[in-house]
UniProtKB/TrEMBL annotation:
<dbReference type="InterPro" id="IPR011006">
    <property type="entry name" value="CheY-like_superfamily"/>
</dbReference>
<dbReference type="Pfam" id="PF13487">
    <property type="entry name" value="HD_5"/>
</dbReference>
<dbReference type="InterPro" id="IPR037522">
    <property type="entry name" value="HD_GYP_dom"/>
</dbReference>
<protein>
    <submittedName>
        <fullName>HD domain-containing phosphohydrolase</fullName>
    </submittedName>
</protein>
<dbReference type="InterPro" id="IPR006674">
    <property type="entry name" value="HD_domain"/>
</dbReference>
<dbReference type="InterPro" id="IPR003607">
    <property type="entry name" value="HD/PDEase_dom"/>
</dbReference>
<dbReference type="InterPro" id="IPR001789">
    <property type="entry name" value="Sig_transdc_resp-reg_receiver"/>
</dbReference>
<feature type="domain" description="HD-GYP">
    <location>
        <begin position="299"/>
        <end position="509"/>
    </location>
</feature>
<dbReference type="InterPro" id="IPR052020">
    <property type="entry name" value="Cyclic_di-GMP/3'3'-cGAMP_PDE"/>
</dbReference>
<keyword id="KW-0597">Phosphoprotein</keyword>
<feature type="modified residue" description="4-aspartylphosphate">
    <location>
        <position position="85"/>
    </location>
</feature>
<dbReference type="Pfam" id="PF11849">
    <property type="entry name" value="DUF3369"/>
</dbReference>
<feature type="domain" description="HD">
    <location>
        <begin position="321"/>
        <end position="458"/>
    </location>
</feature>
<feature type="domain" description="Response regulatory">
    <location>
        <begin position="30"/>
        <end position="154"/>
    </location>
</feature>
<dbReference type="InterPro" id="IPR021800">
    <property type="entry name" value="DUF3369"/>
</dbReference>
Amino acid sequence: MIDDPDSDEDFLIEEDDGPVPQCAARAAWKLLVVDDEPDVFAITKIVLADFSFAGAALEIIPAYSRSEAEAYLLQHDDVAVLLLDVVMEETDAGLRLVEFVRVTLGNKLVRIVLRTGQPGYAPEKEVILRYDINDYKEKTELTTQKLFTTVVASLRAYQHLLDLERQRAGLAQIVHANQGLARHQELDEFGKGALAFMVALLNAGGGELRRREGQGSTALARQGDLPESAIDAIDAWDGLTLRWVDGLVLAPIPSRTDSPVFVCLGGVSSVDDGDRVLFGILAEAVGAGWDSVLLLGRLQDAQKAIVYALARMAEFRDAGTGEHVRRVERMVRAMALKLRVHDDYACLRDEAFVEQLVLASVLHDVGKVGVPDAILNKPGALDGGEKRQMQAHVAIGAEILAEAAGMVPGMNYIALAAEIAANHHESADGSGYPGRKTLDQIPVSARIVSVADVYDALVSKRPYKEGWPREKAIAWLREMAGQRFDPRAVEALAAVIGESSFPTEGQHRSEAVNC
């Protein structure tokens, strides 16, 4: 057939090759030749045998029917160029394959060059507009040089589309990073998430997020494999400018509130201007997020400091309480994790709520600031009037905290603290104070704090009694379950005390709670 000068396949005439553009290297470009004439594939392979574009060779794959091409394309989504005959086993086989690629597979990247020896079957204008075909050639047009030029132009277009798609994905990833990282309110979790996005963006083999400290640096997060040589490069780097050296990326993370932070990525195969732009955008976003998390952490620390100061102020006047609120805080956190499995404690599945609850628990007795010292520190039992004055600390604490909570919109730890202060001396059977509420009327927060508060009072030494052994204290709480306490909260505390390192009765000295 190739000897027949009138044949449709007489479209390859030797001409001079033009220059081959060079860009970032890759393994090989895939060219799928779909034609029912084996000689077409053979000649195409011969003519393009030494072809190279952007530093990569050309892998030429044959398919002799529409079905064979579809099977290959289903398994390989990295075909760069499709040289496609129109008339094969059917007069519109090529056009149906185009529809399969663009519609069924949704592949918008592969460049499709339609070539035909029977142009009457597919008018050029209609075909290109309807079927998203990138070029249309009659076989008699395709000399060696024109075939070469067509393939180069198609590969260049494919490469540009790949770059645009990768940049689009990179920008989408940056937006996703901002959304995802915003959920991390701890620096270590934020650092891990930020590093993961940076590794993915540049398809790196591994990386570290580090903080500059004096002459050295400390790793904040690590993902994947980073060569040992990277550590030497890190220590020798001034940390001020972006560096790309032998597959290693060193980049500063802009931060206005912390010691210099930077990322080191290894195994980066190639970098172009688009990578630099995207990475710079992501680094800026990470830096801003880093500052936000850091400032949020400092704000939260300041809040905790104020809460502990208020609680300590109440404890300071009560000579026996010591570190009572800190122990209650620890027990409340552990109990919340146990209780969240129950549907009526579903609110504890919200980590933010648990953190608010734990912080709020510290303020449960802040109302004691309004109780006279003589009553707070009385070594014996309180008489009726003194007991009423002691019980007034519930209303005092609730009023103080509710007024403060009103200055902050929405549910917050101060509002939760007011709720706890007002209800942590209520009893399940309605015999408590001040509102004589029953179990279903007592908020979850107060049910938990009540059990932890009383347990710590029982095992602590008071001016008029020794601390109970923890087994005796748990047994008494179980006896009171359903009367004073929520039975599930009691069992949660029993489980916590039984498996944790909370202080035993011998570790509680002059630590008392008037409850």
